[in-house]
Amino acid sequence: MTAKTKRRVLGTVQQAPTTANGSTKLPIQSGEHPLPVPQPVMTSPSPIAHTGPDSLICPICNEKMISVNQLNQHIDDVHLGDSNSDSPPPPTAMPTTPQKLDSPGVLDKIIKRNTTPTKKIINLDLFEGSKTFSLSDSNGRDANSMSPTLHQKPRVSRTHWVQPSGNNTCSMAGCSKQLNVKNGIVNCRRCGKLFCNSHTDFKVKLRNPNPGESIPQYDKDGIWSKCCEECFFHKPDIVAGTAVNAVDLTSSFRQLRQTRQEENQLIIDKTVKKFIKLVNLLTEFYITSQHHREAPRTGLSSFFQTSTLDESLLIEKQREIVGYENWQDQNLVQYCYICLTKFGFLLRKHHCRLCGQVVCDDKFSERQECSLLVPLPMILSKLTHLNYSVQVKTHFDEVLHSHDDLFSVRMCKNCKDSLLYDYKLKILNEQHDPKLQELFSYYNQLFVVKEKIHHQMAKYRREMDAVTKSKSNAALESTNRFKDRVMGSFREFERILTEFKTIYFVQNSVSPQFQKYGRILKGINQSLILFLQESLMEFKDLNNRLKQTENEAMPKQPEVEIPRLTKKQIRELRESLMVMNEQKFIIEKLINDVTKQRKFDELQPLLNNKLEITTEIDRLESELGEFGFS
Amino acid sequence: MASSTDTTRFAQFKLVLLGESAVGKSSIVHRFVKNTFDNFRESTIGAAFLTQTITLPESKTTIKFEIWDTAGQERYKSLAPMYYRNAHAALCVYDITNPSSFTKAQDWIKELKKQAPEGIVICLVGNKLDLSEERQVDEQEVLQYVQELNHQENNVLWAECSAKSGEGVLDIFNKIGRALPVEEVINGASSRARQVGSRKPGVDLARQAHSPQNSGCC
Lengths: 630, 218
What we know:
The structure holds two protein chains of two kinds. By secondary structure, chain A is mainly α. Chain A folds into five domains: 1-153, no CATH class; 155-245, Herpes Virus-1 (2-Layer Sandwich); 264-419, Herpes Virus-1; 431-559, Methane Monooxygenase Hydroxylase, Chain G, domain 1, CATH 1.20.58; 567-627. Chain A contains 18 helices and 13 strands. Chain A has a three-stranded antiparallel beta sheet with strand order 6-5-7. A two-stranded antiparallel sheet of chain A has the order 1-2. Mean pLDDT of chain A is 72; it is low at 1-53, 83-121, 123-150 and 295-307. Chain B is an alpha/beta fold. Helices cover 38% and strands 23% of the residues of chain B. Chain B is globular and about 45 Å long. Chains A and B meet through helix 17 and helix 18 of A and strand 2, strand 3, helix 7 and helix 8 of B. Chain A: Keywords: DNA damage, DNA repair, Metal-binding, Zinc, Zinc-finger.
């Protein structure tokens, strides 16, 4: 019976420990296991896989395991294949330690138990994470060669897998690792290609392919499967997540801006037109009142005092100009439309004579002034060229210099702003003119040179690339000349920049007299410096490359100057040295011979000569220095 | 003991052979020293050293030539200065069948005049006289050249010889021996000559002690 034991799992007891006397005790105490107690059929002690919480032993091969996980993995890896073998090696005598079966964790893990003595399978489903007991009898599947897990755990189809053929490399781009036992031979569960271990670290949920689909598909309810990087990043949710979300809003922004500007312009136009009408009206009134009353200097008071009719007429006319539909009923208005303050006893309501809205004129509070009684001449002096009536134009000077209160108009802040919008713009432009002109002329100069350098740099780069490829001397020469030209441009740029800086800057900050243009100056300065830094860096880089190419192309020329000796000299000196050494050898041999032959009279010249040669060799060697042979 | 008496005087001179390669320098030397000739002499490597003594009967002088036979190949050109630097005589050898070798010999003479010590006895030697049928260097031409040189206060001898037949070889050395400043050397004008002279009489034991050392190091 022991021989037939087949277990998968957990080194916990999967078989009741049998005592020596043959009786089997099932140490499951809780009654929750409706398992038939396995009958003690055999007399030999059954293997006990579990020796304690710390040391686990594989029930099949007795290998020691550290953790339950490891054991499970081990059984999967090592013993899955021989599930059919009839007789797994019977475990040798093992220490039968008390089983820890009473621990609920262990009990929980016992999922499957074969009651027949011939085949006992306890399937502990650790990895599926299912905590429920799933009991199944695997008896009926004896014929099935597959391991029990295959039935228990659905697996994604493997039909599409690429079969390893001796000489595979990892399909991951740029990996090219040889696939072997060491690097791993792993199929991506989705695309089926072969990868090494390190490139199948990803997991996706897959389901089996439906008819018509060749490979498994992503499915949220699928099975976690190993996959390659590519398949992982093709996961629908990842694809969705990394999709470019940017939307180009430039055109819509432009449109919006356009409409806004047009609206503004419309408002300005309207205001200006109303203003013209108002001026016309008031001038007419002013002149007629002057003519009729002969009271030139006390306009308003006399006007208001003398004729309320005129006043009401004036207001009526003003309403007409504004437009009756725009002339707000002041009884309906409770809040100033600009500052949104509630009108009250102290806060009077006023009508803007240009837009007809009701505004406050609280000039004493900290609130901004929403409306003002503006003396018309003040505005007229600023807007002299509007299309006023003939009467206004003829009396323009008179009107302009009148200080008559009659000639004042209440207008809200908004209307005033839009009325004077063009004027302010103009003033703004005019104000900056003299100094700004100079500034801009500098900027223009710099800009021209900058553009020039930009183009030249591009050309230099191109030429450099060509030179690096061709290495022809002519190209080198022309590039060198071009380099000088670029250099010249840089010098010009530098000159203008220094000039610019000496005028507008004092020690890297804008000089006080130009503080007004601080921002623009700083901007220009910064951009120029940035440009200079970037271009100079590239320029330097290109120059280095040019030099390098030059050295490569003409190695002789630079070496003529750099080293102490020319190549020819070195060659000659070496040759001499070699000859000298040879000669020394010859002489030494001669000395030897002469000494042997006892021709001492010949010895002296030879010794002298040897001395000479030695000094000569020394001289040559010292001359050669680092170029010598040693 | 053999100083300036009437008995045979002895002087030692350094002689160097210069010239283009394969003109027969070594052959001349061998003819002179060993009275042999080898048809297939290998070209010299570096510089060979040989000695030969001649006696000038008229002045009762024995002259010992320390002959440095330099290689003519361009490669060994750098060796030559070392040998002619303190030589007493120089043989500029050319091949009478080879004009370029004569030009080369002329170059050597020029170089010697520039670099060599003053008073060096230069002898222009035309070799291979046995091949006079194939002569290409005209005698007259050479003579003219030599005369020109001697006009400029140069002491240049000229001779032709054949190392193969031995014709004229000894004459050359006799000529040189006569031209050499024997008296000066013997009277100890040059320290080197005196040294050489003092070498002659006895054996210096200290020298012997040096020699094995030298030979031992190779």
